[in-house]
Amino acid sequence: MHPFTTEADKAIGAIGEAELIGRIRSWLGPCTPAAPYGMGDDCAVLQKKSNLSAIDPVIYGKHFDDSVSPQDAGAKLLKRNLSDIAAMGGKPNDALLALTPSANLRLDWIEQFIGGLREVAERYGVTIIGGDVAEAPGEAFIAHLTITGFAEKPIPRRGAKTGDTLWVTGSLGGSIIGKHYNFEPRLREGQWLADHGSVRGMIDLTDGLSKDLPQLLPDGAVALLNLDQIPLSYEAHSMAQKSNQVPLYHAFSDGEDYELAFALAAEAEPEAFLKAWKNEFELPLTCIGQISTVSEMSDDRLLNSETQKAISFGNGYEHLFIRP
Amino acid sequence: MHPFTTEADKAIGAIGEAELIGRIRSWLGPCTPAAPYGMGDDCAVLQKKSNLSAIDPVIYGKHFDDSVSPQDAGAKLLKRNLSDIAAMGGKPNDALLALTPSANLRLDWIEQFIGGLREVAERYGVTIIGGDVAEAPGEAFIAHLTITGFAEKPIPRRGAKTGDTLWVTGSLGGSIIGKHYNFEPRLREGQWLADHGSVRGMIDLTDGLSKDLPQLLPDGAVALLNLDQIPLSYEAHSMAQKSNQVPLYHAFSDGEDYELAFALAAEAEPEAFLKAWKNEFELPLTCIGQISTVSEMSDDRLLNSETQKAISFGNGYEHLFIRP
C-alpha cells in the first residue's frame, strides 16, 4: 500500500499535529497510559525500572516499500527494537514513538501502521508512553522507536574469550522472501540465555553472519566456523536457486534473520547446555564454531575450521555506501 | 554551512556505517562510555536511575538551514531535549543519538555537529550511551535524540486546578532573531520549581503561549491573562517593527522561547514564592494570570482578564499543516 496521497483531505496534514497525536493515542488504546502521564507531555514517565534502551527506525523506501502492508511495517518497527532487547538478555518495558512523515501521508495508512505496532505491543506487554511528531522534508515516512527494558545482568556484544564456542538460534538466510517481516524477536530465548550464566557475548543477526559475527570476537581473535553446521533456512535454498550463489552465501550476507548469535564460555558443557535448551525450546540451537587465535596477522576474522582459510561470502549488509 | 556535498570522498558514504560510528565515538570523547557498553551494542545500558524520557529531532530545512552552523544545530538537538526534562522538573542523565542522513552528508559537517552537541553534553553532564545510524531517502539530514532523566516527583502538564496562578520565566517572543539557538534549557529553574512543592503543572514554551498555555488548563477551564504583565523580549519588539504586528503577537505566536510556564497552587503565597525565587535566580519570573472558569461554553481558552474577551494572536506554531 502506497503511504502518500495527493488528496489533501485524506492526508495527515488535514488534521494537524495535536489531532494526529490524539488519534494515535486512541488507536493505541490500552497500550498507552492515561493522563496526566503518557503521550503529549514534555517527557514520558517510565512505568517500570529500566536499565536498557535502544533506538531503531523503519524508513519508507529503505526498510519497506509499497508491497508491504502498513500493519507489517508498524509491527516490524517494534519487533526490530525488541530483538535488540533480546540480544542483551532483557525484558522489554516502555517505548517512545517518533514519527517523521511528510504532510501528505495517508491517514488510513498511518492508522493501520499504528494498528500493526499495537498488536505487537499488546503481545509483548510494551507500553507506548510518549514520543514526537515532526514534519519530514519532501515526501517521506520515517518512524523511530526507542525501547526501554531491564536485564539483571545485560549481555554485551563484546564479552567472549578465546576458546568460547559460537552458537546461533533458528536458521539463517533468504529473509527477503518474507522472514524480515514474519519473525518473532527471541525475547524468551535471550532471557533464558542470560539467566544461564555461561553466555558472555550476544548479538541479534541483522546484517548477516559476515558482518555480525566479528562483533562477538575479542580483539585479535578469529572465529573458526564449521560450515557444514551453519543452519540454513528453506529461504536460503530458495534464494540460491535464483541468485547463482550457494545457500551459505545468503546466511552470511542477507541479514535481517533476527536470530541470536552468542558465545558460550569455554568452561561450559556444550552437551548439557544443548539438552537444557531442548527441554525449554523447540527452536533449533546450533554450535557453529569456536573463538580462536591465529599466529599470522590478518584482517580476516571468520575462517573455515577445516581449511583455516578466510570465509568470503560478501560483507553483510553495508549501510551508507555511496553507490556509483 | 551547507550539509551536503557532491564530492564523494568528502561524504559519510565514503567511510560506511561502522567507521562513522567509530568516528562519532571519538568525536564525543569523554561524553560516551567505554566498551563493553556504550555506542555500538544492541542496547545502551543506562548509567543512572531514570524515570523520565523524551525524544525530539532537528531536521535540515525545518529546524535549521544553511545559515546555521553545524555546531549550533548539534547543540540545539540536545538543548531542546534538555528543555523537556526541565519542564518536568527533572535532572538529565543519558541520551541516545539516532542519525538519519543521506550518504552525501559532509564528513566535516557532521564532525562539527557532534562537536556542538558534545559541548552541551559536557556542560550538563549528559552521556551519549548509544543510538543508531540509518540512511535517509533523497537528500536529507534528520537527527533524533532520546534523553533520559530523573525527577523525584515529575510535574506533568496537566496537574493545575482552577484558582491556580500562571507564571512564566524569562521574556518571550521573536526567537527567530537568534534565541532559538542561543538559549539555555531551564534545568536548574525547573528542578527548583519541582522541589518547591506548590507547582502542579508545567510546560516549556516551544510553540508560543497561544498553543502551549492551554495545555496547562484543566478541562473546561480558561486562563485569564493580564496582557500588561506578559514579559516581552527585546526581540519581540524588534520583530514587531518589521511584522506590523504588536509585540504581544510574537509572544503568543512565535514559539521556541524555551522558557518555562507553570501553574502555582491557589493556596501558595505568590509574594513569598517570588521572593524565594529572587533569592535564587536573576532570571525574571512573572505572574501573567490565573486559571478560572466561565459560565458560557466556548472554544476560547485564553481570555483578557480586563475585558474577558478571547485573546487572538494566531494559534502558535502549527506543525503538519498542508500549505495551499
What features would you describe in this structure?
Chain A is of the alpha+beta class and 324 residues long. The first copy, chain A, has two domains: 8-150, 2-Layer Sandwich (60s Ribosomal Protein L30, Chain: A), CATH 3.30.1330; 165-304, Phosphoribosyl-aminoimidazole Synthetase, Chain A, domain 2 (Alpha-Beta Complex). Chain A is 28% helix and 21% strand. In chain A, strands 7-9-6-10-8-11 form a six-stranded mixed sheet. In chain A, strands 2-5-3-4 form a four-stranded mixed sheet. In chain A, helix 3 (107-124) links the parallel strand 3 and strand 4. The two termini of chain A are 30 Å apart. Chains A, B: Mg(2+) 2 binds at residues 56, 84. Chains A, B: Pfam families: AIRS. Chains A, B: ATP binds at residues 131-132, 157, 206. Chains A, B: Substrate binds at residues 63, 256, 317. Chains A, B: InterPro entries: PurM-like_C_sf, PurM-like_N, PurM-like_N_sf, ThiL-like.
Describe the structure using short key phrases:
homodimer; alpha+beta; Phosphoribosyl-aminoimidazole Synthetase, Chain A, domain 2; 8 helices
Strand and helix map with partners:
Two copies of one chain form a homodimer.
Chain A: H1 16-28, E1 44-45, E2 52-59, H2 70-87, E3 91-101, H3 107-124, E4 127-133, E5 141-150, E6 165-169, H4 187-196, E7 199-204, H5 209-212, E8 222-225, H6 234-243, H7 247-253, E9 260-264, H8 270-280, E10 285-292, E11 302-304
Parallel strand pairs in A: 3-4, 8-11
Antiparallel strand pairs in A: 2-5, 3-5, 6-9, 6-10, 7-9, 8-10
